[in-house]
Every structure is written in structure tokens, then in C-alpha cells.
Automatic annotation (TrEMBL), chain A:
Protein name per UniProt: Spermidine/putrescine transport system permease protein
Source organism of this protein record: Paractinoplanes atraurantiacus
Recorded topology in the membrane: Multi-pass membrane protein
UniProt xrefs under CDD domains: TM_PBP2
Gene Ontology CC terms, in alphabetical order: plasma membrane
TrEMBL record, chain B:
Cellular component, GO annotation: plasma membrane
Transmembrane portions of the chain: 12-36, 71-92, 104-126, 146-175, 196-218, 255-274
GO biological process: transmembrane transport
UniProt keyword Oxidoreductase present: no
Organism, scientific name: Paractinoplanes atraurantiacus
Record localization: Cell membrane
Keyword Nucleotidyltransferase carried by entry: no
Protein name: Spermidine/putrescine transport system permease protein
Sorted UniProt keywords: Cell membrane, Membrane, Transmembrane, Transmembrane helix, Transport
ABC transmembrane type-1 domain ranges (all copies): 67-273
Length: 280, 288
């Protein structure tokens, strides 16, 4: 739509439209250059998962091998860190999903006192430096003498994910067609039934994508986790700790598998949501 | 009657659990951090509140180089990001056609790899024995004293790399919102493409640029991963100092004071932004 309007030649097709196409073509090439630059370190990470390096030192290319895929779970610390990361991501994304949906629904549906300050707090959690959020949580836990570990990491992840979930859900609730709910009420459904039978199924995709976003934020988080982990290791923390002694190739393999799963998941959900919007 | 009360209570009940969570684990920690920065003592014997302002004076004078350096790195990275991201967002918004979402997805690909891992991967690429420096050295284009890893270029490059999507997305959202009829009207009034861009498109994209600046400058200037992995002793940023004071030296008062100074500098900017331009643009990008 926009492209058509912009590309429509305003004058007779002389030199001008051709020059404009060249300009856009140049920018098109530039966009691909940027994408290539963004993908380059990912390609390096994937490639070095196939590197036939003798030991832990995985800096120079030796030869191609699949062996690290076979030895994926040989480093128990690394496997443990990955499992910890996944467990924390599951728990924190579900908790943030529940708490964030409540906030998002209320903000999208009702006008109430305190909504403004709530918005401001959410904005603050989204735009505050992670370093400060992590550091301040550390001071809270330290002054309460709470031991750091998986629980404190989960608490922190829920904290920074709530606002993201709430924002996603609020956007959906605001565009919701109220007449469907009114129809249900006219047919004698109680508010409770209307919510669970009508409203909730409609906002469920938004809740789902909010939970996914929270999962992704949690499993990748390094900075806040670093401050709230104590001696517990998550996948990013393991990598951080291993930088000085050398990153084992298994890290590259796990990174590759996480990348592939994430991309696959995103593509599949995207295609499915496109299909459902078409049938609507 | 009972229903009306219920309906009035409903938003509060919905908001309460999440609101309390944010209050206890986001707002309260800021206060404990402020209080800790004014205490004296050590981690073994405990801290006592003494209103010790001297910590701030000492911390700032010891680490002013790192504070200033972080703000400069953050600012330089942000300026480079605007220049790099604007054409990308522009092209996708106006020429992306049916493939807009595909291009946006490609730009978000790095987010499927852990932030630390991506940065380490850059370290590998830019290392002296890596695929960039070693060919340059072997053909004699640069001497043995030439490095990329460990320089401020590598650190700023890493910051630019890691935060690029946060600049592209808000600019894209702003450009996407522009009514094509406005651009058409400019053409009809005989504005040439350059004037149309300067007088119509760019001003309308400005809120997106500001949102992008907020979303990149804050994390970039408080980052410590890039400077630790890609930098050297000469590129230490304040985030590294804060991290080390907390987690290595356990000097909580100094670390808290430094955090507070950094937060004050950044949050003043954030709240000025929120007051002047509202919170909607940033929230919209967060919802993507």
C-alpha cells in the first residue's frame, strides 16, 4: 500500500523514476548488509560448534566435526546451568504471565485511580538500566539477609518481565470488541461466565505471546541474573565464567540449538497466527 | 449494588499482586540502595547508617574517568546507531512492501542468541589471530602493533551491534505511522524528495528517534559486558566498576553510591523524556 503510493511516478516516466528506483535499490542492499552484519557473529558461533578442536580452547579453526553434538551433555556444570536457566525461565514466565495479565487487563479495561502511577512504574522498569535493577535488588536481599540463588533470580526475572507482559496484554484488551461481551450478557451469561467463555479466549494469544516474551527475556538475561545469582549458575553465567578459561565447544552447540529452536518456534507461531487471522 | 462495588474493586484486585511485586522488588530496592550508599561498615561486621556523604565524594573522584568515559561511549554509540538505523527503518517502512515483517524478523535474529555469547563471538572475530586482523597483518597492510580487540573502537562497535534493533524498531514504528497521504500532499505541493524528507518525514519520525535514543543510550552507557569482553584496562566503563565493587570487592557503600550517581544521570534523562514525550512510544516497541 505505502510502496505503491510512494513509487507512483508523479511525472512522465522519464529519468526520475529510474533514479528513484536506484536509490531504493541502494538502500535495499544496505539493509541486507546490516542484516549480514547482525548475523555474522551468530554464524561464527554456529561454525565453531562444528570445530574439531582438541580441547576446551576453541579459537582457531581446525577441521569439521559433529563430535560436540554427541558430547553435548558431557560437561555436567554446563548441563546443570542450562537446566537451571530453563527451569527459571518456565517458572518466571508463568508467574509474570499471571501477574502481568492482571495489570494489562485492568489498564486496558478500567479507568481507576493509580493507573497513571502504575504506568509510570512500568515505564521505569522497562527503561531502567538492568545494572541498577540488579544492583538494587542485591542490596535489598543483602539487607534482608536473604541467601542468593535460583529463587532470587526468579523473583528478579518476574519483576522485569511483568511490565512487558502487561504492555502486550493491554494492547490487545484495548482493541477488543466489547459488543461480543455485551451479546453474551444479553443472552444471560453472568460476568464471570462471560469473562472465561468470551473475553479470556480472545486475549489468550496476547497472554501467550507475553509469556513467550518473558521466557525469552529470562533465559537470555545476564546482567540482573549476575547480581542475584550468588553461586548459582545459569547458562549465560556459565558462559561468562568460562570466558577466561576458554569457552567449550558445547556452549556453541547449545547456543546453536537454542537459536534454531527459537527461530523455528517464532516462524511456526507466525505462520499459524497468519492463518488464523485469514480465517477470521 | 453489590455488583457495582465489585466492579469498582475489580481493577484494584487485578492490579494488586503484580503491583505489589513491582513495589517490593523494583521500588523498595532503590531505597535500600540509597540507604546503603550512606552507610558505613563492611560485609563481615555489617553496616550502620551514618549518613556518610563522603562515600559519594570519594567514589566520584576515584571513578570520574570511568563515569565520563561511559557517557561518551554511550553517546557515540547512540549517534552511530541513529545514522545506521534510520535508513534501515526508512527502507523497511516505505519499501518493505509485503515483506516488512520478514525484514523486521531478520533484524531481531540476534535476540535468539544469548547477549554474552554474541559479544564473545565478536571477540573471536576481532581477536589478533582472528579472520579480520591476521589477514591484514599477513599482507602487511597493518603492523604488528595494530589491534582491534581491546580498543575503544571494539567496545563502541560491540555496543552498536548489540543495541541496533532497539534503535531500528522505534524509528520504524514512527515511520510506519505516517499517513501516506501527508507525503503525497507534500509531493502535490511540489516539494522535491529531499524537501519532503526534511520537512515532512523526518519531523514525524523524530519521536521514534527519541524513543530509540532512550532505549539505546541507557543500556549502552551502563553496560559492562561489551567493555569487559571487547575492551581492555583503558576502556573500563562504570558498569564494570560497579559490578566489581559489588561482586568482587563487596564494597557495597561505594558500589551503591556509584550506582546512584549513574542512575541519577540516566533517570533524569528518562523522566525528562517521559514528561515531554509521554511513555507511549517506548511501550509500543516493548509490546512487539
Amino acid at each position: 500500500m505505502t510502496t505503491q503510493t510512494l513509487d507512483r511516478p508523479t511525472q512522465a516516466p522519464s529519468l526520475k523514476p529510474r533514479r528513484r528506483i536506484t536509490g531504493a535499490g541502494f538502500m535495499h542492499g544496505y539493509v541486507w548488509l546490516i542484516i549480514a552484519w547482525l548475523v555474522l557473529p551468530i554464524a561464527v558461533m554456529i561454525a565453531f560448534g562444528f570445530n574439531d578442536t582438541p580441547g576446551r580452547y576453541n579459537q582457531e579453526w581446525v577441521g569439521f566435526t559433529f563430535k560436540w553434538y554427541g558430547k553435548l551433555f558431557e560437561l555436567s556444570n554446563l548441563t546443570q546451568a542450562l537446566v537451571t536457566s530453563i527451569l527459571i525461565a518456565i517458572v518466571s514466565s508463568l508467574l509474570a504471565g499471571a501477574l502481568g495479565t492482571g495489570i494489562g487487563y485492568a489498564l486496558g479495561r478500567y479507568r481507576f485511580r493509580g493507573a497513571g502511577s502504575l504506568n509510570l512504574i512500568m515505564f521505569a522498569t522497562i527503561s531502567s538500566p538492568e545494572l541498577i535493577m540488579g544492583a538494587s535488588l542485591l542490596t535489598l536481599f543483602a539487607s534482608l539477609q536473604v541467601g542468593l540463588g535460583a529463587v532470587t533470580i526468579t523473583i528478579a526475572h518476574v519483576m522485569f518481565s511483568i511490565s512487558f507482559v502487561a504492555t502486550v496484554v493491554r494492547a490487545r484488551v484495548m482493541t477488543l470488541d466489547r459488543s461480543v461481551e455485551e451479546a453474551a450478557a444479553d443472552l444471560g451469561a453472568t460476568p464471570w461466565v462471560t469473562f472465561w467463555k468470551i473475553t479470556f479466549p480472545i486475549i489468550l494469544p496476547a497472554v501467550f505471546s507475553g509469556v513467550l516474551l518473558a521466557f525469552a527475556l529470562s533465559i537470555d538475561d545476564f546482567i540482573v541474573t549476575n547480581f542475584t545469582a550468588g553461586t548459582t549458575e545459569t547458562f549465560p553465567l556459565f558462559i561468562w565464567g568460562a570466558t577466561r578459561v576458554g569457552i567449550p565447544p558445547q556452549v556453541n552447540v547449545m547456543g546453536t540449538l537454542i537459536f534454531a529452536t527459537g527461530v523455528l518456534f517464532a516462524v511456526v507461531t507466525n505462520i499459524r497466527s497468519r492463518r488464523t487471522t485469514k480465517t477470521d | 449494588m453489590k455488583n457495582r462495588v465489585k466492579r469498582q474493586l475489580a481493577p484494584y484486585l487485578l492490579v494488586l499482586p503484580g503491583g505489589i511485586w513491582l513495589l517490593i522488588f523494583f521500588a523498595v530496592p532503590m531505597i535500600t540502595m540509597l540507604s546503603l550508599s550512606l552507610q558505613e561498615g563492611d560485609i563481615v561486621n555489617g553496616y550502620r547508617f551514618t549518613g556518610h556523604w563522603q562515600t559519594y565524594v570519594d567514589a566520584i573522584s576515584s571513578y570520574q574517568t570511568q563515569i565520563v568515559r561511559s557517557l561518551i561511549y554511550g553517546a557515540v554509540a547512540t549517534i552511530i546507531l541513529i545514522a545506521l538505523a534510520f535508513p534501515v527503518a526508512y527502507w523497511i517502512a516505505f519499501h518493505g512492501g509485503k515483506r516488512k515483517s520478514t525484514y523486521l524478523f531478520l533484524l531481531l535474529l540476534p535476540f535468539f542468541v544469548s547477549f554474552v555469547l554474541r559479544t564473545i563471538s565478536w571477540g573471536q572475530i576481532l581477536a589478533d589471530e582472528g579472520p579480520v586482523v591476521s589477514p591484514l597483518r599477513s599482507i602487511g597492510l597493518v603492523g604488528d602493533s595494530f589491534h582491534i580487540l581491546g580498543t575503544s573502537y571494539a567496545v563502541i562497535g560491540g555496543l552498536v551491534y548489540n543495541f541496533l534493533p532497539f534503535m531500528v524498531l522505534p524509528i520504524y514504528v514512527a515511520l510506519e505511522r505516517i499517513d501516506p497521504r501527508v507525503v503525497e500532499a507534500a509531493r502535490d505541493l511540489y516539494a522535491n524528495p529531499a524537501v519532503t524528507f526534511r520537512k515532512v518525514i523526518f519531523p514525524l519520525a523524530l519521536p521514534g528517534v527519541f524513543a530509540g535514543v532512550l532505549m539505546t543510550f541507557v543500556p549502552a552507557s551502563s553496560d559492562y559486558v561489551n567493555s569487559a569482553v571487547l575492551g581492555s584496562a583503558g576502556t573500563t566503563m562504570i558498569g564494570q566498576v560497579i559490578q566489581a565493587q559489588y561482586l568482587v570487592n563487596s564494597d557495597y557503600p561505594t558500589a551503591s553510591a556509584l550506582s546512584f550517581v549513574l542512575m541519577a544521570v540516566l533517570l533524569i534523562g528518562v523522566f525528562l523524556y517521559a514528561r515531554m514525550l509521554g511513555t507511549e512510544d517506548v511501550m509500543k516497541v516493548a509490546a512487539r
